[in-house]
Amino acid sequence: MPSIAQRSFAGGEIAPDLYGRADQAKFANGARLIRNFIVQRFGGVTNRPGSRFVRETVGSSAGKDTRLRRFVYNSDQTYLLEWGDFTLRLIQHGVGIAASATAWSNATAYVVGDQVSHGGVNYYCILGHTNQVPPNGTYWYAMPADGTWEAPTPFAHADLRRLQFVQSADVMTVTHPSYPPYELRRYSATRWVLAPAVFAPTVAAPTGVTATPGGAGSIVFNYKVTAVLPETYEESLGSATATCTGTTPSATAPNVVSWSAVPGALEYNVYKDQNGVYGFIGTARGLTFKDINYQPSNTDTLATPASVFNAAGKYPATSAYLQQRQGFAGATDTPENIKLSRVGVFRDFSVSSPLREDDAISFSINGDEVNEVRHLLNLGRPVVFTSGGVWRLEGDNDGVLRPTAINPTMVANSGASYLRPVTIGNTVIYVQARGTIIRELQLDLV
């Protein structure tokens, strides 16, 4: 039998349609089948890494799907998340992470994520309470008998394939068009909490806001106050309206606006009503502000809160961090629509009037067809993968996205499947819609 020497396998596996194409360059350095090997960049092949049994997944005996997803905080803190049928497990260094349960006490105020041991069983708290004895299923979830950590999730095994994940530090956002967005937060190696994402500023609006007129009169004055955090200068929504009736305020007889302290707030912004629009009039570090007849700003106005992702048909299918904003897209009712948060405030989708450059953004990818957005990626500039094509968001002349400068440009007319694209070096590989072709996108072409 003749011996055939092949010096390179750089051509990889050859498709059956090319078996007769000996004239093609890759025919000479390809193969019909390369099983359990990885083709190296210089043409050689090496054994693929092996695997070992860690443990049985939830529902495997019933043929239920499981989804594995890595969670990487840094090179020293990495985890493997095992998403099963309504369950979540944690794996690190090849073993399931053990629960950190303490003895149950009827005097402890438990919060979601706490773990206790009672009657020889470990439990995970799913609803805050005091003095609710395990195994009360309203408040406690029984963890596995082997002592490993496990928590409940709302995701059925049939929906796991469509879950998408995006991570920022200790927070992972989970999206699916049939579920509201969820956040998985890591507080320690054994304390993790999965909860619906809350789309509002993290700082509370001031309460107890009152306004006292400087003198008697018949003019009506309306005020609202916001709280501002240090460092990030994230601003709360506006408070309830404080109203007073009096004369025109002055330096000697000002209107005085007062409020209660907000935990963590550095300062407070005060807005005054002018023809139904609340314009900025000043900032206070204390709990009072004196209005000496300041005129409300026409350009710096109180932001209007947005109601997003709050009903079936409006839940996003994908998410990504783009230019210090978090983007969501692919909702069933508006498949071509993309929403971007305010700059640096990932859960705030409020807008101002007139628009400010850091306001939230909402726009649609408009083309000849209505194609659903399936993936958002940051590839130097934001790139949108839809079911019918790939688009680049040009932004303004500097490439920055603004409410008035989106400028989508199609860069490929082959749509993407639901499988998330993979970035390798300066290349993105994605599966074309309907899953029959793998395509690559060079970043220098994007």
Distance between the termini: 51 Å
The rounded Rg comes to 28 Å
**Percent range for β-strand residues:** 35-45%
How many separate helices?
A: 1
* Structural class determined from secondary elements: mainly beta
User: What value does the average pLDDT take?
Assistant: 92
Q: Major beta sheet, specifics?
A: 5 strands, antiparallel
Number of strands: 37
Oligomer: single chain
Overall morphology:
flat
Poorly predicted regions are: none
Helicity range of the residues?
under 10%
Report on this structure.
- A hairpin with a 2-residue loop joins β11 (115-118) and β12 (121-125).
- This protein has one helix at 25-28; strands at 12-13, 30-31, 37-39, 45-47, 67-74, 77-84, 87-92, 95-96, 102-103, 109-110, 115-118, 121-125, 129-130, 140-142, 150-152, 164-168, 171-176, 179-188, 191-196, 210-212, 219-228, 242-246, 255-258, 267-274, 277-284, 288-291, 318-322, 325-329, 337-340, 361-364, 373-379, 381-386, 390-393, 408-412, 422-424, 427-431, 438-442.
- Strands 5, 6, 7, 8 and 15 form a five-stranded antiparallel beta sheet that branches. It has a four-stranded mixed beta sheet with strand order 9-11-12-14, with no helix packed on it.
- It is flat.
- Among the domains are: 12-47, no CATH class; 210-291; 318-445, no CATH class.
- Helix content is 1%, strand content 40%.
- The mean pLDDT is 92.
- The longest helix has 4 residues, at 25-28.
- It contains one helix and 37 strands.
